[in-house]
Amino acid sequence: MKVLYPWQEEDAIWLGKQNSLLASDCGVGKTLIAVESVKRYSKGTVLVIAPRLTKEWWKQEILEQDAGIAGICGAAGRGIAWEKVARYKGDKLLWVIVHPEAVRISRRTIGFVKWDTIVVDEAHRFKNRGALQTKALWKLRARRKILLTATPWGKSPADMWALLHFMYPQAYRSYWRFHDDYVNDYKPPGERFTIVLGPKNLPQLAKEVAPVYRKRKKSEVLSGLPEIIYTDVPVVIGAKQSELYEQLRRDAYAELVGQEIILENALVKFIRLQQCALDPAMMAEGLPALPLGEKPAKVEWVLDWLQDHPDEPVVITSRYRKFVEKWLRELSPKAIIVGGMRAEAVQRALQEFQHTGRLVGSLDAIKEGLNLQRASTLINTDGTWSSTAEYQLSQRIHRVGQTRPCQVIHLVAKTEKRWTVDKLMRKAVEQKFTNARLVDSFIKELQNDI
Q: How does the average pLDDT of the chain come out, rounded?
C-alpha cells in the first residue's frame, strides 16, 4: 500500500466533500488520490471511466491501495454482469472500469445502475457538449462525481461547461450563459460561424469555479523533480518542398481572402499546408513528391540529432500515422505505438523502449496514460493545434521518477522565404496555455485567501 504525501491526503479529503474537478498536473498522483478518496468515502458500486490504455493501471492502483474490494469488473474488456452490478448491496466496494466509448455504446446498461461514485479520468474527453458520448455521461446517476484532468479547457473556458454541467446540472443549465460570461468571440457579418478571440472575465470565472476546482503544480509539491525546457527549432525545408508549399500557400490565400469563405475548405487547406511542410507525399497519391532518394527535411533533422546523441533516450512523435509508419519507424522499428494497436502490442513496444531508449508513435496514441520517463527528450515533428494534447504529450516524460532535465523539441518548418503554418500553430497553442495559466493563478489566489 502506498503512503500518501500530506498534500495528497488533503486532496483525498477534499474530493470526499463534494462533486469535484481535480486538475493537478500530470504525474502528481491524481489516480492514487481518487482511489484513496473513494476507499474512504464511498460504498457500494463505483464506476471508473478511463482510456483503454489506463484501465489496467487503474486496476493496479485499486489493488495496491486495498481499496475495500468486492470485485473489479471490466478492466480487461471482459463482459460485465450488469444486473448483478445493479443489485449489489454489499459493504465492500464493487469497482467497474470501462473506457469512454463504452459510456455511449452501453449507456442502457451502465445507465441502469445507480452508482455510489463515478470517477472520470481524462475528463477533457467529455468537454464537447454536442457529442453523444458526453450526453450519455450526463444521464448517469451517482451520489458523488469525481473528474480528473490536467487540462479542463483548451480553446476557451466554455470547454469546462460540459464538465460542470455533469457535476452540477441544476447550477449549470445554460451553456450560453456560461459562454457569454467568459468567452470573447466574434461573428463575421452574414456568417454562421464565430471566431473565438480568447477568454474574458477571468477573475469572475475563477471565483465561480474555485469551490469545486483544485490544481497543484508539480513544481509546488514535488521537490527534486528536474526542470522541463520547451524549444522551437526552425527546420528549413528543401527547394522542391518549398516550391510545393508556396504553390499551396498561394492557392489557400486566394480562397481565404475571397468574398465567400467555406470554413471546412479553409481547414482542409491548413491541413494540406502542414502535410506539405512535413512530407508532400502524404497529401495525395500521385502528387509530385521529393526528388528520388531525398528525405523530408524534418526526417533529416531527426537523423542528425540521433547521430549526435546516440545514447540519449528519446520519444519521437507525429500526429500523422502515415508519417510515423513511413519514416519514423525506420529509426526504431520495434518500439512503435500507433492508434488501433492492442494493449498487448503496446506493452511489447514499451518493453522494447525500456531496453533501447527509443520510441516512435502517433501523437493521439501516446499522449495519454503512458509512463515514458525512460526518455528525457521528446521530439514533436509537426505539433498540434490543441494545447490539451500538447500538454498531455509533454507530461509523458516529465513525471515522478524522472531524474534528468527534460526537453521538448518542436520542429517548426520554414521555406526559403518565410515561416510555414507551423509557426502560426505554435503561437496559437502558447496563447491558449497563457489563458489557462491565468485562470489557475486567480483560483490559487482565491484558495489561499480562504
A: 86
Question: Are 46 and 116 in the same domain?
Answer: yes
Phi, psi of 133 (to 5 degrees): -60, -45
Q: Is it the case that residue 11 has pLDDT exceeding 90?
A: yes
Q: Residue 323 maps to which CATH number?
A: 3.40.50.300
Find, among 134, 186, 118, 111, the residue nearest to 156 by Cα: 186
Residue that finishes a domain, picked among 173, 188, 219: 219
CA distances (Å), 157 to each of 98, 206, 400, in order?
28, 10, 29
Tell whether the model's pLDDT for residue 210 goes beyond 60: yes
Contact 275, 422 (CB under 8 A): no
265: number of Cβ within 10 Å: 11
Q: What is the DSSP string of 264-304?
A: HHHHHHHHHHHHHHH-GGGT-TT---SPTTPPPHHHHHHHH
Joined grid coordinates for residue 327: 519514416
- Domain span at residue 401 reads 228-419
Which residues lie below 8 Å from residue 292, measured CB to CB, with a gap of 6+? none
136: Cβ contacts below 8 Å, ≥ 6 apart: 103, 104, 107, 111
Surface-to-core class of residue 359, CB atoms within 10 Å of its CB (0-12 exposed, 13-18 middle, 19+ buried): buried
* Residues 95 and 39 sit within 8 Å (Cβ to Cβ): no
In the DSSP assignment, the letter for residue 419 is B
Task: Compute the chain's Rg from CA coordinates.
Answer: 23
Evaluate whether 125 touches 153 at the Cβ level (below 8 Å).
no
pLDDT above 80: residue 323:
yes
Q: Across 87-199, where does the E strand assignment appear?
A: 93-98, 114-121, 141-148, 183-186, 195-199
Average pLDDT on 250-266 reads: 51
C-alpha cell at 167: 457535476
